[in-house]
Design goal:
The chain is α+β, with helices and mostly antiparallel strands and 457 residues long. It has 2 domains: 238 residues, Amidase signature (AS) domain (Amidase signature (AS) enzymes, Alpha-Beta Complex), CATH 3.90.1300.10; 196 residues, Amidase signature (AS) domain (Amidase signature (AS) enzymes, Alpha-Beta Complex), CATH 3.90.1300.10. The chain is 34% helix and 16% strand. It has 13 helices and 15 strands. It has an 8-stranded mixed β-sheet, sandwiched between helices. It has a 3-stranded mixed β-sheet with strand order 1-3-2. Strands 4-5 form a two-stranded antiparallel ribbon. Helix 4 links the parallel strand 2 and strand 3. Helix 10 packs across helix 12.
């Protein structure tokens, strides 16, 4: 079940511990990250908007003070740690154009709420990473910043829309990142790039300051709410960093269950109506499930408590399309009415209730994050094309089923790397998502960590 690691560079907590111990200064940590970017990014193109000068200045300012000790009221768990965020998050003084050439004149007047929280925790933002236009693809390329590639294979996509994020973390440029997810945009890049990613419970992490620049540059614009379905979630190379980033971003107290994984009730899903999974994903998934079973973990393969997944997918896609278009007419010219939207909210609430009932019986649900491994680069949008599944072409939109599984009912889901498979002639990483009840974010991450310990020793 081993999979090739791209980097042995330290994670966020390890870097912060080295700084507190005096083994490394914030300036040295920032400089090392920038040097790695200089060596690696010409081939990967993960970084879209660098902010090196201000990062060096922030690091020098930190070195004039001692790192607050652990346990103190002003403790900063990320003191001096360099990191990046997705291009779509506002960082004061930096461009945010979501890949649009005509919006490059928008410069954020203030930090997004998430960036403010990360900086308050001691993180040093050294830049922002690449995205697809309007954050709407499983690739990360646009006419402003160009194309990001997968660090495992330059001919493959790192995923999207947080593809630059995942590529930066997987290659070792930075120890951690924050992206967003509405159609698998954190989970799919984590899966494609062989790292950890977490889709947070909807509403946990504020997306204030994550606004389309077309709207944000209007005079007097103030976003009043988080958009339906969409969340902000972290990417990292280990579970501990993922948990810390989730807690730092979170605005709601999270439950924490100390139950041992062997005492948990687990349901595994590998089939979804009208969305077959490629053998390159099924084989490492089944190998992982068998290894977990041999370790004594009981895993059910079916349950009558599952919602009608075909209905869930249809309602998810309708809500997704309306939310992404902000209610604009669909390609057929039809516009959703207010009644249509309220009907979808009712359907979503009913679906969330059904999942809550299932989680009275099960602690976690395991599933693939996507039906394929890292896809070859395409000139156009993935979702206007097809993906190859078991030798047959199928509409790429069908792959969104595995993202919508957790997105529509507002549930958390952690992706961990489980191994590798061979897809379209290339050996590539494969992940698995661990879903749990709403607000069980830390439990999902802990369960994923326990699973990883079994699979990788």
């Amino acid at each position: 079940m081993a999979y090739p690691k791209l980097t042995d560079k330290p994670g966020a907590l390890e870097t912060a511990a080295a700084i507190r111990a005096g083994e490394l200064t914030p300036h040295e940590a920032v400089d090392a990250a920038i040097v790695r970017i200089g060596k690696l990014d010409s081939a990967i193109n993960a970084l879209a908007v660098p902010d090196f000068e201000r990062a060096y200045a922030a690091a020098r300012a930190m070195e004039k003070q001692a790192a607050p000790p652990e346990g103190s009221p002003d403790f900063q768990p990320l003191f001096g740690v360099p990191m990046t965020v997705k291009e779509s998050f506002d960082v004061e003084g930096l461009q945010s154009c979501w890949g649009h050439e005509h919006l490059t004149d928008y410069v954020a007047p203030r930090d997004s709420e998430l960036v403010r929280r990360l900086k308050a925790a001691g993180a040093i933002i050294i830049g922002k990473t690449n995205v697809p236009v309007d954050l709407s693809d499983w690739q990360s390329f646009n006419p402003v910043y160009g194309r990001s590639t997968n660090p495992h294979n330059a001919e493959r996509s790192p995923g999207g829309s947080s593809g630059g994020s995942a590529a930066a973390v997987a290659s070792g440029m930075v120890p951690c990142e924050y992206g967003t997810d509405i159609g698998g945009s954190v989970r799919v890049p984590a899966h494609f790039c062989g790292i950890w990613g977490h889709k947070t419970s909807w509403g946990l992490v504020s997306k204030s300051g994550h606004d389309h620049p077309q709207m944000a540059r209007r005079e007097g614009f103030v976003a009043a709410h988080d958009g339906a379905l969409s969340i902000a979630g972290p990417l990292a190379r280990n579970a501990a960093d993922l948990a810390l980033l989730t807690e730092l971003g979170g605005s709601v107290p999270l439950r924490r269950n100390t139950k041992n994984l062997n005492d948990c009730r687990i349901l595994a899903l590998k089939k979804f109506p009208d969305s077959p999974v490629d053998a390159s994903v099924l084989e490492p998934t089944e190998a992982a499930l068998e290894q977990l079973a041999r370790s004594g973990i009981k895993i059910d393969r079916s349950s009558g408590l599952l919602p009608d997944l075909a209905q869930q997918q249809a309602e998810y896609l309708r809500m997704l399309n309306i939310a992404m278009a902000r209610g604009a007419p669909s390609p057929d010219g039809k516009r959703a009415s207010a009644s249509d939207w309220f009907d979808l909210l009712d359907a979503q609430a009913a679906n969330e209730f059904q999942w809550a009932q299932l989680f009275e019986e099960y602690d976690f649900v395991l599933a693939p994050p996507a039906p394929v491994l890292a896809i070859p680069h395409l000139d156009g949008s993935v979702f206007n094309s097809t993906i190859r599944v078991n030798g047959k072409d199928m509409p790429a939109g069908a792959g969104l089923t595995w993202a919508g599984l957790a997105t529509f009912p507002n549930l958390p889901a952690t992706v961990l790397p489980i191994g590798h498979g061979t897809y379209e002639g290339a050996k590539l990483p494969c992940g698995m998502q661990v879903m749990g009840p709403r607000w069980s974010d830390l439990d999902c991450i802990a369960a994923a960590d326990a699973i990883a310990a079994i699979l990788h020793g």
